[in-house]
Design a protein that fits this description.
202 residues, elongated, mainly alpha, two-stranded antiparallel sheet
């Protein structure tokens, strides 16, 4: 009788230990499930955030007009949407017009209304790149998540557009301090620095 009681007394701590161990394993398993679910939720939220930013970028009227100017050698663009006369809302933008509009104010003292409008459009377009870079620096998004939405325009501005226009854009970016844009392009392996600056730094 004493032996049975002695065995039961010895088993109780063991059973308590096993129950606590199982409880701990169960809690850890639930923690892993919760962590995995949290990771999925966070990834979904990040993707949703990136998609929303890309949608806003593409929906902006000034951005779309800038895209037209980058994509077409010559095109009528609605630079003055507030004009009461419909025909006067549009202006023809050529490659030569782009180069002239994007000159530095230190070398070109006066700009035509069309050139001013072109500069305003490019400022808006480039400011989005500045914001995207800030989001990446803050850890809100990554360049990999953003890349599908910007790939075409990064490639166009970096390599595909005509050299003279490309250098004008690169000079404009550098002259007016769009450092975030330059940093963003570096993330994609592209250097958008004007030829004169590259030559000077060599």
């Amino acid at each position: 009788m004493l032996a049975i009681e002695s065995n039961n007394t010895e088993l109780l701590p063991l059973l308590e230990f096993i129950l606590k161990l199982l409880g701990g394993i169960g809690a850890f398993y639930l923690f892993l499930i919760g962590l995995k679910r949290y990771g999925k939720d966070q990834k979904w939220k990040r993707n949703e955030f990136v998609a929303a930013q890309a949608k806003e970028f593409n929906a902006d009227k000034l951005v779309r007009n800038t895209m037209y100017m980058l994509d077409w050698g010559s095109r009528y663009v609605e630079l003055f949407p507030e004009s009461p006369v419909y025909a006067e809302r549009f202006a023809k933008v050529t490659r030569g017009g782009l180069r002239s509009a994007l000159q530095s104010h230190t070398t070109k003292r006066r700009f035509t209304p069309v050139e001013v409008a072109i500069r305003d459009h490019f400022d808006c377009f480039l400011n989005y790149f500045e914001v995207f870079e800030q989001y990446i620096e803050a850890g809100l998004i990554s360049e990999k998540e953003l890349e599908p939405y910007l790939r075409y325009w990064v490639q166009t501005i970096s390599d595909d557009i005509e050299q003279e226009v490309r250098n004008s854009i690169h000079h404009y970016v550098d002259e007016y301090g769009f450092r975030g844009t330059q940093s963003l392009f570096r993330r994609f392996g592209k250097e958008i620095v004007p030829v004169a600056v590259i030559s000077r730094n060599r």
